[in-house]
Design brief:
Elements (H helix, E strand, L loop, with lengths): L8 E7 L6 H9 L6 E7 L6 H7 L5 E4 L5 H11 L4 E4 L5 E2 L3 H11 L5 E9 L8 H12 L3 H6 L8 E4 H7 L10 H10 L5 E11 L5 H4 L1 H15 L3 H32 L1
Parallel strand pairs: 1-2, 1-4, 2-3, 6-8
Antiparallel strand pairs: 4-7, 5-8, 6-7
Helix pairs in contact: 8-10, 10-11
Length: 269
């Protein structure tokens, strides 16, 4: 590809009171040096210094800070503003791996039939250190064996490492604004029912976990919500039963991880 044929990639970052992390997120996007980038930050009216950080990068990104109805609403507003050929959202505490956008653009360009794609994703902590490697390895194994029935049983698709074409938005519409925890999984189920994703065998992003993150603080509710969503798309008693087993197993693993994390914190203090 030459500079004139790079597809425009639109990245939307929904944000609310994430001054602790958002600059790292911004730099991971701008540091891609992708030649046809559209970066939009939709902030929900933060009062923690986020807006001051956004002002530093005016000219390199577009930002809005106003009250919204939640994360899905912010993403939808960003998608409506965007003009990119390829779309993704990156939460204000996650990051892209170096070169991720170029790898995504090249794959879409050489495989025009693909509607959406996903790649591997590291799990990182507050200090950007990789953690929970066994979970990452497990998800990578599932990705290599992706199928729609598997997606109905568990969710191996990492949101920060997932991208889709604008034509998918035209066909499947916006994110469900009534879904505040797993709007991404809902979208994967909607697209995946008709189109399988391409799976890139490379790391595209880092997903941050820490005590106050939405995923860490409500993981049991999140996994339960995924199970209930899958049932909306499946009438198979077998697949629904397997998803319940998956829910119980992954919930137990996360409870164990949290207990180990608390124990380590106590020992260090």
């Amino acid at each position: 590809m030459n500079v004139h044929t790079y597809p425009k990639i639109a990245i939307i970052t929904p944000s609310y009171n994430q001054a602790q992390f958002i600059e790292r997120t911004i730099l991971s996007v701008l540091g891609q040096n992708y030649p046809n980038l559209e970066y939009i930050v939709m902030d929900g009216g933060s009062r923690d210094g986020t807006v001051d950080i956004l002002r530093k990068y005016e000219g390199s990104l577009t930002w809005v800070s106003e009250k919204d109805k939640g994360q899905a609403d912010a993403i939808n507003k960003g998608m409506a503003r965007s003009t990119g050929d390829i779309i993704a959202y990156l939460n204000s505490d996650d990051v892209y791996e170096p070169g991720a956008l170029m790898r995504v653009a090249e794959y879409f360009s050489f495989h025009p039939e693909v509607r959406w794609l996903t790649g591997k994703c590291r799990i990182i902590d507050e200090r950007d250190r990789e953690v929970r490697r066994p979970i990452t390895a497990y998800k990578n194994f599932l990705l290599r064996h992706y199928s729609y029935p598997l997606l109905l049983v568990t969710n191996p698709v990492s949101q920060p490492a997932t991208f889709w074409k604008r034509s998918a938005v035209d066909e499947f519409g916006p994110f469900d604004e009534n879904e505040h925890l797993v709007m991404d999984y809902d979208y994967w189920l909607r697209m995946g029912k008709k189109y399988p994703p391409a799976v890139l065998d490379s790391y595209l992003a880092g997903f941050r976990v820490y005590a106050l993150s939405k995923t860490s603080s409500s993981f049991l509710t999140t996994f339960e919500r995924e199970m209930l969503l899958a049932r909306k798309h499946s009438t198979s008693a077998l697949l629904n039963g397997l998803h319940r087993v998956s829910y119980l197993c992954i919930s137990a693993v996360y409870l164990l991880l949290n207990a180990v994390g608390r124990l380590r914190t106590v020992r260090r203090s």
